[in-house]
Amino acid sequence: MSLKKSAIASLTLREANLEEFQMPINAFITNSAQEQREQFILVNSTKPLPKGLIYELLPYTETKLSKTLQKRRFPAGLLDKLNYTENSSLEGMIKTATNPDGFIKDNSILKFLENSLAEGALYRFRDPDTGLGDEEKMLELINNFWKAVSVVFKPAWGINPKNSRLMHGAGITAMGHLMDAISDRYHSENQTEITTYEQFKGDLEQLVPFCKWTNGYWDFGSDHKIKWNELQNISKDIQLLTNYLLRKYRFEVWN
Hints:
The strands form two sheets. The protein has a two-stranded parallel ribbon with strand order 1-2. Helix content is about 50%, strand content about 5%. The chain is mainly alpha-helical. The longest helix is centred in the last third of the chain and has 20 residues, at about 235-255. About 30% of the residues are buried. The protein has one domain. Helix 5 (about 105-120) packs parallel to helix 7 (about 170-185), helix 6 runs parallel beside helix 8 and helix 7 runs parallel beside helix 9. The radius of gyration is 22 Å and the shape is globular. A hairpin with a 5-residue loop joins strand 3 (about 215-220) and strand 4.
């Protein structure tokens, strides 16, 4: 029960004018902050508690959780470091329960991370047995990419998603797939080199004419044009934008 609900319940009982009333409660006592977080997650994960708050706590727990939460613990840890590490390319930009002023929704970043960990650039640094991986190399690659994005698409960066589809869920997810494609281009088999900022920047610059993040129309071909702000964070539009960016990259840059 939240503090607000507890206060309301206490006030109601006090004003009920009853000599006695049985009210069951659950409580635990511990001096461990980690155990407090773990119990908080276990108790509230089945109730309508903001998922973002649970995801923020995940990196600081070690207890066995549900399969879904267990799977999200590692990417949630990457998100936490991206958002709160000084000089990170996404420092303070991810909107979470404790950082409501961020521009990019935490779920969009988690989706981007999970996609790349499953079959993209981050997979190379992942341990398939544990689901963990080389966090340092992953963060370096991610920071190189988003730093390049922030420079190449500067007018569309760091502003409200309503004014930029680059900061929007559709843009973040599609650009995540583009990160994987660029990294794949520079990746040599049996090597674990990290795609550099310069490599990302050089390739992204060639895509500028085709990206309509803040104005104009996306030209998806065959008389299929969509106004820049009509792209929505839904599967159909995300796939449309992803395919478009990957197609342009392969034909305009890679070849």
